[in-house]
Amino acid sequence: MSLADKANILIFMSRSITANYIFNLLNTISGILFPLITFPYSSRILLAEGIGEVSFYQSIISYISLVVGLGIPLYAVREIARVRNDRKQLNVTTIEILSLHGITTLIGYLVIAILCFTVPKIQTDLPLFLLLSSSIFLTTIGCEWFYKGIEDFKYITVRGLIVRMIGIILLFTLVKTKNDILWYGITITLTSVGNSVFNFIRLRKYLCICNIDRRSINPFKHLKSVGITFLLVLLSTIYLTLNPVILGFMTDDVYVGYYYGGIKLFSLVFGIIDSLTAILLPRFSNLMAEGRDEEFTAISQKVYSFTVGISLPISVGLFFVSQYAIPILGGNSFIPSIGVSQILSVLLVLVGLSNVFGMQTLYPKGKVYIMVKVTLMACIADLLVCFLTIPTFKHYGAAMGYLAAELVATMGLYIMGRKYISIRLFDKSITHYLFAVILMGGGLYVLQSLNWNNLLMCTIMMCVGAFIYVLSLLLLKDSLILEGLAIVQNKCLKK
Predict the structure, then answer these.
(1) Least packed by Cβ within 10 Å: which of 94, 267, 334, 446?
(2) Are the CB atoms for 235 and 379 separated by under 8 Å?
(3) Residues of the domain holding 374
(4) Are the C-beta atoms of residues 128 and 53 closer than 8 Å to each other?
(5) Rounded CA gap, 222 and 231, in Å?
(6) When comparing pLDDT for 486 and 160, which is higher?
(7) pLDDT tens digits, residue range 369-418?
(8) What is the pTM for the complete model shown?
């Protein structure tokens, strides 16, 4: 294959990755906007008591779902991506993973049955609990991992938007009084896993089991690899969710509220960075399975540059915008959350880099043991920092713990996995981004002197910050911004 042919392949793949990223980002944004639309309405109808009851049941079911999932949603994306070009093997792998997930789901419902008979608080509204628990079954048959593995992100996005729109209509139509809590349960179940019904029906388009020797089906051969992935997911969940629990035990509930206020804003922008991982895991897994190492390395470098280029301005922007955005989202009572959000803003860069090193490089290459070791180290770092800082710094200490965990994770993944990570950390593009973000930060610092209302300050800072950053990259003739403009130009010419 000539150099020109290789270049053309990389250009095509870059454009398809861009399209997948846009679709997945739209899906992520719609997932963020949905609760912003529905929660104010449902909370006023059902009041705190009704919302609290549903949240309590959901928290129980979420832990059961975590165990039932057994790391399958993550593991299956990689495995489906590896065999997606082999129709027969694709059928076999899908049936095996679906069967394994079905077995764990039966075990999960056994646990649910025991809870229904033994926990009085669940028995107070058994129909609601059982309704919400249907999400476990629907998730299993939905096989969301299949569509991610074959990179059908356009379908995932369009389907998700349709289901969420139906959910909004049903919510405003059916939930009228605080007694309509069961209808509320139906709407949130539909919007969270209603996609599964469409997924299962559409699966017939891809699967054909008539020519498969059923004796060759062995779902348990995946059990070891699934178990390791589950350990990775479990450890990650611990340091992502444990901090508010520790904070609650060591301080008062008000500080937990301040922490949640800060992390809520962080979560709203986190999806922009994290959306990239969802689309790249299947792509990189497929490249590794087919032995296309050169393409893997070339795209990895571009992805690394893109991640740094997009996470740096978002991180700096969040740091400055937090002081105006927090009061808008939570009111003046959440002013102490500003510091939490500013501490967590650094995480956007760290999470982006750890995703590149871990989920986008080491995991497709099957180096899960390295990721498990590093994640365990991150958990230990998180716990140590939390126990040392929370007594003095309260909610800020919990944020510091999260920051310490991600710092250890990012550094650990690169150091322990550098043998498998073919990425240049510093090149011309990185210096461009650093220079542009310094100018952007200086501009936002000056804007702080304006004494306008919070909403106006948020809007101005985001617009001015984006303008300075993009203009700086244009003047530097950075490849990231030039490629982006070329894609937009080509789209316009086609129209």
Answers:
(1) 446
(2) yes
(3) 222-424
(4) yes
(5) 14
(6) 160
(7) 999 999 999 999 999 999 999 999 998 999 999 999 999 999 999 999 99
(8) 0.81
The reply to whether 40 and 163 lie within a common domain is: yes
Residue that is last in its domain, among 371, 394, 424: 424
Percentage of the chain beyond pLDDT 70 is 92
Number of structural domains the chain divides into: 2
> Is the pLDDT confidence value at 476 over 50?
yes
Start-to-end CA span in the chain (Å):
33
Q: What is the pLDDT of residue 225?
A: 87
Among candidate residues 350, 361, 353, the one with its CA nearest the CA of residue 422? 361
Residue with tokens 């994770």: 409
Structure confidence by residue, pLDDT tens digits, 113-138: 999 998 888 888 888 889 888 888 88
Distance CA 239, CA 346 (A): 17
Is 271 within the bounds of a domain?
yes
Tokens of 189: 């179940």
Secondary structure (H, E, C), 287-313: HHHCCCHHHHHHHHHHHHHHHHHHHHH
How far apart are alpha carbons 314 and 99 in whole angstroms? 42
Pair 208, 243 in one domain = no
The per-residue pLDDT for range 65-111, each reduced to its tens digit, is: 888 888 888 888 889 988 888 888 888 888 899 999 999 999 999 99
Mark residue 177 as left, alpha or beta (left: phi above 0; alpha: psi -120 to 50; beta: remaining): beta
Is residue 227 located within the same domain as residue 199? Answer: no
Dist. CA 237–CA 294, nearest whole Å: 34
- Distant-in-sequence, close-in-space partners of 272: CB < 8 Å, separation ≥ 6: 25, 28, 310, 314
Is residue 280, in this structure, part of any structural domain at all?
A: yes
**Cβ pair 317, 465 in contact under 8 A:** yes
Helix (H, G, I), strand (E, B) or coil at 119: coil
The CA–CA distances, whole Å, from 172 to 51, 90, 105, 161, 194 equal 16, 41, 32, 17, 17
Assess whether 185 and 259 both reside in one domain.
no
Provide DSSP, 365-426.
Answer: TT-HHHHHHHHHHHHHHHHHHHHHHHHHHTHHHHHHHHHHHHHHHHHHHHHHHTTT----SS
The C-alpha atoms of residue 379 and residue 383 are separated, in whole angstroms, by: 6
* Structural domain contains residue 489: no
pLDDT of 487 reads: 62
CB 17 within 8 Å of CB 279: yes
